[in-house]
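Friendly challenge for the regulars: who can give me the structure tokens for this chain first? No prize, just bragging rights.
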Amino acid sequence: MMPKSISAFDLVATQSSGNPIDPVPGCKGLETVIRCFTLRLSIMVFLSCMVSVSLWAQEAGETPPGTVPEQKGIGTVTGRATDPQRSALQGARVELQPNGLTSVSDEQGQFIIPGVPPGSYTLTVSYIGFSQFSTPITVKAGQVAQVEAVLQIGLVNQEVVVRGEREHGEIEALNIERTADNIIEVLPTEVITSLPNTNVADALGRLPGVSLERDEGEGKYVQIRGTEPRLSNVTINGVHVSSPERDVRNVKLDVIPASLVDSIEVSKTLSANQDGDAIGGSINLVTRTADDEAFYSVTGLTGYTPIVNGRWLTQYDATVSKRFGAERRLGVAFSGSYDYNGRGYNNIEPAPGTNDFGDGRGPVLVYTGIHLREYMQRRHRYGFAGSTDYRLHNGSSAYVRGLFAEFKDFGDTWNVQPTVGTLLSQTTSAADGNVVLRHLNRTPEQRIYSIAAGERLNLGQSFLNYQFAVSRERQDGQFPSTYFSSPSNVAFGVDTTTLRRPSSLC
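First reply, four minutes later:
Bragging rights claimed.
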């Protein structure tokens, strides 16, 4: 039997025939072949994936058939660095020998070194001003080795050492700078409160490479390495904050009282874990956390100056921190600050010039006007910061931190500006001058607040650090002003009776 050939033209029905298109007897068989081919192709792809997964599992460490299983686990080293009074040592350098793994203790003195192969090691902890701590440890697969490193204050032989309380502030700042991954400057609270710093900007101005833009005698904006203030950013406990002023990127640091922060970190070069919007540098304000030793501090001062009918200055600060429980797992810290600064000053700006009266003397010295200003400021600044943390098992911890600050820069300005008319002589004028009086009352209120909550979890072979945070800013207030203008028929003159103290007459 000869095979029958089918032409493609036989499958097409012409319109002139008027007959519908009849199905070709071989189409159903063709569809069956396509379905079978698709099914076989799917099975082949599935089997290929299974083989790939099997090979990947063997490469990842599964034991292939016919071989003896072998365990190659790793362990973790955690601990806490403290001084003899059990106070945390932040910034201590921890090193594991002989493999050279390192870590740095946090603000609670805790440290973690994950991914350590099983074996015997020597753990060393170093801290400026203390003798090096060293102890042998054994790391087992899948387990956590706990170390309590209590460092003793360092002594030097053949020297008389007078030892008092441990210098917490500057030594801790030096250790943080020494163990940091980038170039930073740290200003501790002991240094901040030892000097008359009313706000954070004033405190930052004492660091090298940092300059200030001042407003009414107080620091306002911060410049790092000579760059513009808008090229630096500000964070509170690592949370970015924006400026309370509208349409301005510069953050007004005179809003935040200096006593609310535990330390200030200025990063002059950024690292990968920081925001990239700081060409000039980054300023991080770190709030206080509770240490093992309870801390209480209350300070107050007041002052008076006789300028502008007498102005007062008051400032009050309080800080409390303590840990609770038999194991001191729960820690609470709170700081509050309030200060009032009544400022005032006078400003006199004469307008000297020359005039030729045609009497043969030529141009002579005259005064064409004078500008008298009187300023009275009422600056209120207050805020509070708090933190609560709980030490979990195995070196983990959970925390909540927050800061709120408000600044009321109230004040009044009186401007008196006489306008001298036609000069008749060096000391008199015609009756065609006038006087303008302007009164400006400003009531701006600026707020900055931030809150963050998170955990630092030790998962044995890894370490997880996460937090949820929010920060806001706000500015309210008005700048109403009033103008008073006298008639334009005022004559002016200069009283030369006392040559050392000439005064104007009108």
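Helices lie at 27-60, 168-179, 189-193, 200-204. The two ends are 136 Å apart (CA to CA). Your move, everyone else.
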